[in-house]
Amino acid sequence: MITIYDIAEKAGVSAMTVSRVINNTGRISEATRKRVRKVMEELHYIPNSMARSLVLQKTHILSLLITDITNPFYTTIARGAEDAAKRSGFRLLFGNSDEDYAKEKDYVDMILSTRVDGVLFAPTGDHSLEHLQQLQKHNIPFVVLDREVPGIEADVVLGDSKEGARKLVEHLIGIGHRRIALINGSQDVSTARLRHLGYREAHTLNGLPIDDSLIIHVNYRDFHDESALEALLQHPSPPTAIFAANNMLAVGVIKSLRQRGLQVPQDISVVCFDDFVHAEAINPFLTVAAQPAYQFGSLGMQLLIERIESEPARENRKLILPSELLIRASSQALVRA
Amino acid sequence: MITIYDIAEKAGVSAMTVSRVINNTGRISEATRKRVRKVMEELHYIPNSMARSLVLQKTHILSLLITDITNPFYTTIARGAEDAAKRSGFRLLFGNSDEDYAKEKDYVDMILSTRVDGVLFAPTGDHSLEHLQQLQKHNIPFVVLDREVPGIEADVVLGDSKEGARKLVEHLIGIGHRRIALINGSQDVSTARLRHLGYREAHTLNGLPIDDSLIIHVNYRDFHDESALEALLQHPSPPTAIFAANNMLAVGVIKSLRQRGLQVPQDISVVCFDDFVHAEAINPFLTVAAQPAYQFGSLGMQLLIERIESEPARENRKLILPSELLIRASSQALVRA
DNA sequence: CTGTTAGCGCCTTCAT
DNA sequence: ATGAAGGCGCTAACAG
After folding, report:
1. What is A61-159+292-322's CATH superfamily?
2. B248: which chain A residues are within 8 Å (Cβ-Cβ)?
3. Which of A132, A225, B132, B324 stands the most exposed, by the fewest C-beta atoms within 10 Å?
4. Which pLDDT tens digit goes with each residue over B164-189?
5. CA of B120 to nearest chain A CA: how many angstroms apart?
6. pTM, full prediction
7. What string of DSSP letters covers B29-74?
8. Superfamily in which the A4-56 domain is placed by CATH
C-alpha cells in the first residue's frame, strides 16, 4: 500500500508536507505542491481514510437505518438521504432492520463500533428507545425518522400520520362509506397509533360510530398475511371500504381481493398511506395519502449534518411533512343497496 | 472515548490482556477474563473498529454498488446482499450510481479510500471497465453483478438475458404476434445487448423478419420518457406487442398507454424482464421473465466473501441464474383483423 | 498466563 | 515554508 511516506520520499520532502498538500493546509510553495501532486498521481496514491479517521476522531461516515428495504417509501427515503450525504462528502453506511428489533440491535452495535459521525434512524417501534439511548450514551448524533419514539428528545422528521389518515377516511365517508375497515401496523409504532387516531377522529367528527371489530393490527411487513382480510370478509356486516395503513398492506389487500374474485372499487374501495411509482400502473389506480419520501431522506440527512457540524448544540427540531390526498380510482362512491 | 487502556487500568491488567479477551485469542485465566469483561460492561466499552482496521489491514466492510435504488430488482438484490454480508459479520457500505458514470466514479473513489475488503459491483455499462481496473490495480477483490463488462476477468453473477428475452418473444410469437416492438436499455450495457440478441433470435428461429424501426434504445431509467412509445404508436404499421427490457420501462409503457386510452392486453400486449412484488397488484398482471433477484445479491456476496477469505486465488467463477417465464394477463393472443 | 515494544497511516503541535 | 516528534486505539511478535 502506498503511504504518504512513499510519496514524501519520491518527492524529496517530508511526510508532513505531503499531508499538507493533500489537505490544503499550511503554506506550501507552489513548486513543491506541484511536485508532490505529480508523485501522488504516478503512484496512484489514495489516502487511507481509516488512518485519518483514527487521528481526526471523525469517520466522515453517516449511517442510514431503515426498516424495510423492499418498501418503495423507504427506498425513496434512502435515495434522498444518499444524495444529501453525498453532496456533503459523507459516506453512507447502510442498514435495513426489516422491522425486526434484533436486527436493529445488531446494526446499532455496528454503528457504535464504526464510530460513525451520525445516524439517520427509522426506528422499528417504541422499544427502539433502548437503542437510541445507547447512541446518546456514546454521543453519536442522530435524527429520528418517520416514527417518533416516546422518551427520546432529538431532531425528528415525521409525516402527518393523523391528518393524513383523517383525510383518507373523511374522503371515504364523504363518498358514502359507513363501514370502513382499518388494517393497521403494530400499535407499538407511532405512525400506526396516529393513523388509528386519525381514523377515529374522522368518524367522530362526522358523527359516525366506530366498530372496533373492523380495526385490525398486523405488522407493516405482513402484507402476505391474508387472515386480516379474511376476518373482515367473513364479518356479519362486512366493510365497504378498507384503509390500509401503508402501501405494502394495500398491495397485499388488492392481491388477495383479486384472488377471491372481488373487484376494486366496484365491490370494495381501498385507500392507503404512501404513494409509489408503480401505483400509477396498478389497477385500480390507488387513492393514497402521498408522503414526500425523498424529502424525508434529504431533509433528515440535512438536519443530521447540520447538527454534526454546528458547534453550539442547537435546539431539537421537529419537521412535520404534510401528506397529500390523491384521489384516484380505487375508491368509489358507495351505491346504496 | 473509552479505550482498552481504560479497561486495562481499571481491571488491573495490561492492554494486551484486554485485547486478548476481546478477541478470544491466547490463553487467559478464567478469573481475569471475567474481571475484564465486567469492567468492559461497566464502562460500556465498544471496540474502535477504525483502530483495529488500521492495524489488521482489514476493514470488515464490503461495498455494494447498484445502479438504481428505485428499481425493485436492485433493492431485492440489496436485501440478499445485505443478509449474506450480515451473516458473515461484514458491514455494508452502500452506493447507488443511478446509472450514472460520474456517480459511479465518485463511489469508486470512496471505496478505494475506505479500503473496503471487497465490492459487489453492478456496473453502469461497458465503460465501467475503467473503474473495475482501478479496483484491480489496488487489489480490491470484487464480484461483477448483473452485467458483464468486456475486458474484465472476475467472478460474475448474471441472469440469462438472451434466453429470457427469447422466451418472452417466442411466447408472443406463439400467441400470434408478428409485429413486436422492443424498448431496450442502452447498447452499452451487456444485458441490453443480450436481450436484443434474444429478441432477434426468437424472430430468426421462427422465420420472422425483423423490423429495426420497432427497436428502440433508451436508458433503463428513462421510464418517464414517452417519446419511444410515441414513435411506436405513430408507426405506419404499429406493433401489436411491446417487449420492455425491464420492469421500470414496462411500468412506464403501461402508464403511457393508459393515458392514451389504450388497453393492455386488449389493444396491445406488454411483457418485460424482472418481476416485482407489486406486479401482482398491477393491472394487467404483467407477463415477465422473472429473475431471482435475491439470489443475485446473496450468491454474489457469497462469492465475494469466499474470494476474500480463500487464500490461494481461486479460478474465476461465472454464475448464470435462469429466469422464469411467468405468463400472466398482460399478453394476449392476437386476434387477427 | 501476562506484559512490553513497536508500528499500522495519518495529523497536531511545536520547532526551525 | 518545511520538518521532527508524538500519539490516535489497537494488535502482532516476542519476552518472561
Report:
1. Response regulator (3.40.50.2300)
2. 277
3. B324
4. 999 999 999 999 999 999 999 999 99
5. 14
6. 0.91
7. -HHHHHHHHHHHHHTT----HHHHHHHHT---EEEEEES-TTSHHH
8. lambda repressor-like DNA-binding domains (1.10.260.40)
